[in-house]
Design brief:
Blueprint: H1 6-16, H2 18-46, H3 48-63, H4 66-82, H5 84-97, H6 99-119, H7 126-135, E1 153-156, E2 171-174, H8 176-182, H9 187-200
Antiparallel strand pairs: 1-2
Helix pairs in contact: 1-2
């Protein structure tokens, strides 16, 4: 009779019952999640400099391999899309559990953004913004989604962080999803990325 080591038995179970093993791992993770998180946090605090050095070195390695970096980002986007609802629920749960910390962070982020907007050249009045909205036919500038005026977001084609202005010519209406996905990319960079994703599908 063939004998198997403990490792081999585990591997056989994983191959024969992948869903059962996955569910078991999930239950174990949920059971010890808080304990493991506390241990990991304590270790990072005790080894903060070591962690910083590791992440800096890892970032440099990723930047040195653009093909691998692009593949990694595509994988992350795909994972987010497949687990979008769960991720949103996790974020909401975190914000609820860390209300004070999140509120301070949001205030700091908003203050920084206001500072950049005020420092950037140009202005866009409500009438000019309405004109830009109508120029795009009441649609998002990056996707065919139809928007109501009050739900359209003022999106900078060239981000303020990259030298963009507040002049109407640099502002387009965008839906919340496109505005979030675009981030700090220029409209050209974002368009190229969306074309690449569409071509890969």
């Amino acid at each position: 009779m063939q004998r198997f080591t403990a490792v081999e038995r585990v591997q056989r179970s994983q191959r024969r019952y992948p869903e059962r093993v996955k569910a078991c791992k999930r239950r174990t993770y949920l059971k010890y999640k808080e304990k493991w998180s506390a241990q990991e946090k304590a270790w990072r605090q005790a080894n903060s400099e070591r962690c910083s050095q590791y992440w800096r070195a890892a970032n440099e390695r990723r930047k040195a391999d653009p093909i691998r970096l692009a593949a990694r980002r595509a994988q992350q986007r795909d994972y987010y899309q497949r687990n979008r609802e769960r991720r949103i629920a996790d974020v909401k749960a975190y914000e609820k559990a860390n209300f004070a910390k999140v509120r301070v962070w949001k205030r700091v982020r908003s203050a920084r953004r206001r500072t950049r907007l005020v420092a950037a050249p140009g202005t866009c009045s409500r009438e000019q913004w309405l004109g830009r909205f109508q120029f795009y036919g009441g649609c998002c500038a990056y996707c065919p989604r139809t928007l109501k005026f009050e739900e359209a977001q003022m999106e900078h084609r060239i981000p303020i962080s990259k030298g963009g202005s507040n002049w109407p010519a640099n502002i387009v209406p965008a839906c919340a999803d496109c505005n979030l996905r675009k981030g700090t990319k220029t409209s050209t960079e974002f368009g190229a990325r969306m074309s690449a994703i569409g071509g890969a599908q």
